Amino acid sequence: MARRRSASELSYGLVIGSLAALALVVLVGPILIVLATSFTDSRSIRFPPQGFSFRWYELLLDEVRSRQIHRAVGNTLHVAVVAAGLATLGGTAAALGISRVAGKAGRLADALFMSPLVLPGLAFGLAALMYFTLLGFRPSLELIIAGHLVVVTPFVLRTVGASLSQLDPALLDASRSLGAGPVHTFRRVTLPLIAPGIAAGAFLAFMASVDNVPVSLFLSSARTDMLPIRMWGMMESTLDVRVAAVSGTLILVAFLLMLVMERLTGLTRRMRG
Amino acid sequence: MSSAAALPAPRARGAAAPALSPWGLAAPLGLAYAAFFAAPLFMLFAVSFYADEQMTRFGLDQWRRFLFDSFHWKVIADTLLLGLKAVAATVLLGFPLALVYRAASPRWQRVLLFVVIMPLLTSVVVRTFAWIVILGREGVVNQLVLGLGLAAEPLRLLQTELGLVISLTQIEMPLLLLPLLSVMSRIDPNLMDASASLGASPWRTLFRVILPLAAPGLAAGCLLVFASATTAFISQSVIGGGRLVYLPSMIWQQAMIAAHWPFAATAAIALLVSVSAVIAVIAYAGRVAGGRVHG
After folding, report:
1. Are A169 and B139 in contact (CB < 8 Å)?
2. What are the ABC transmembrane type-1 domain coordinates in residue numbering (chain A) (predicted)?
């Protein structure tokens, strides 16, 4: 009995342990490989990289030869800032509203607002293209912002909704019974307590917009080029080594932003929900 | 409590926000969704009922063309199967990682969480690019395989479904892990001890105690992975290549290259409906499995 028990404990530890280790390698390995590759000195993308240089990063910074990439980065940041800003305002207000609607209606509203998260983004991207074109709009960054707004708002709703559900109603009652009006209670009690949730949501919405493919794929044009779409083009044609340098930059920026957000909002805890 | 009567009556119950009705607060976002989400989707349906490419008259021609061609059904099946394979692969690796996470100290839990979220915040295009470097003819895998003498010539991994599923495993795994880790951390460790002290092997505890308790989080994660893998156009087209046809590449091809909007709309609705149907099944399974334990 005892022998059998230890044998199964051993097999459990071995199987689960090695699968989990493989999962970690699969998760992190590719990112480290891309980062290392971006410092290659050769004209081909290989791992391990040959030589060490910043030449692809230098080419990436070149105003003239990387002009298209620079424009795509500018467009992407512009869209992400505006879309995430609007999503944060609208999403926070909606989350505050929904949190006060009990029962079925509240759950239904929540499910509707969250649906872009599971809906095939590509179908929505095509729908947005047809809609805007048939209404007579020409491609513009504003249309991309409208499309992104819908797909990034669920991130705000989720983090703000989670903060609100952890809000102790006794605090609101206390504030009221001490004579504070609703506006005062909101500004001095509710808002400070849910602020980290709002910040985390804004950050995730921003990152989701920067990363968006399905909507940008249909709504971007030569004039309104977006970074992921440009990178796709660079990967499809001749494999341009600058893709590695762009990737390396994005990885480092994501890493730094994540450290900052972890400090400010406890992001990892919040995303675990 | 008697003093409460002397105070001014609260205007709104649980007033988290001032002076505005709940629906008033949700209205701006609701309007934005109506204009930029519901209306476009309605337009997608409408366009699919144009009979011809020039969109001059209505008719069921595109639907007939789509549904009465076995090739399209094969594309739908391949797309859904790709999603299910991605779900299976991410669960096979992700669930053990979640088990390790559950047993880890708070400090290590934070490290693991960081490792899971980091790839999620790294662009999907970057992650797709990484797998080209790894799976290519001169990629990491082939260098290993050739170096160890396991094969005489480079394996063909890019432009195969195997390569695509491997890539999607990494690309989508964070989506599985976030909800899964969240339920795992809420499981009472005493239950595991109780199960062990009653003589259950770790495997039995895994399947009879942990798995049912984790079911809602597992279902939520599977749902996100499935939704994302079936619509992952760039990974599908760059790693899968032109010979593997899935609904997203078909939709893109028809809309942007062939400029045949009614047919593209029909294919997009097929993607929408088929993916939603599978998602509904996964969500239902999660509720049933969770309800048996939590209900």
Report:
1. no
2. 73-261
B119-153: b or e for each residue (b if 16 or more CB lie within 10 Å)? bbbbbbbbbbbbbbbbbbeebbbbbebeeeeeeee
Return d(Cα A204, Cα A117) in angstroms, integer: 13
HSE-CB for A38 with a 13 A CA cutoff = 24
Positive or negative torsion for Cα B133, A230, A220, A222: negative
Per CATH, is A65-272 categorized as 1.10.3720.10? yes
DSSP class of residue A116? Answer: G
Pick the CATH number of B62-102+159-294 from 1.10.3720.10, 3.60.70.12, 3.90.226.10, 2.40.170.20: 1.10.3720.10
Q: Residue A4 — very low, low, confident or very high, per pLDDT cuts 50/70/90? A: low
Overall average pLDDT of the B30-37 stretch: 94
Instruction: Please indicate whether, in this complex, the C-beta atoms of A101 and B23 are within 8 angstroms of each other.
Output: yes
The CB-side HSE value for A25 (13 A sphere, CA atoms) comes to 8
**Token couple for A176:** 């009221």
Encode pLDDT of B39-79 as tens digits: 999 999 999 999 888 888 898 889 999 999 999 999 999 99
Q: How far apart are the first and last CA of chain B?
A: 35
Number of residues written out for chain B: 295
Domain boundaries, chain A: 65-272
Which ipTM was obtained for this model? 0.87
- Identify the residue whose tokens are 């002397």: B6
| A93/B29 CB distance under 8 A | yes
With H, G, I as helix, E, B as strand and everything else as coil, classify residue A239: coil
Interface of B with A in 13-32 (CB under 8 A): 13-26, 28-30, 32
Q: Please name which of A129, A134, A116 lies closest in space to residue A220, comparing C-alpha atoms.
A: A129
Q: Is residue B177 within 8 Å of B114, Cβ to Cβ?
A: no
Q: Is B232 in contact with A122 (CB distance < 8 Å)?
A: no
CB A206 within 8 A of CB A81: yes
Cβ–Cβ pairs < 8 A, chains A and B:
309
Of the candidates A31, A204, A14, the residue with the CA atom closest to the CA atom of residue B115 = A31
Domain borders along chain B are: 62-102+159-294
Q: Please state, in angstroms and rounded to a whole number, the distance separating the CA atoms of residues A189 and A105.
A: 27
Residue window 151-170, chain B: list those with CB within 8 Å of chain A. Answer: 169-170
Q: Is the pLDDT of residue B11 over 60?
A: no
Q: Which residues contact A160 (CB under 8 A, 6 or more apart)?
A: A91, A92, A95, A96, A194, A197, A198, A201
With contacts defined as CB-CB under 8 Å, which chain A residues touch B123? 210-211, 228, 231, 247, 250, 254
- Measure the CA dihedral A94/B185/A22/A208, to 10°: 10
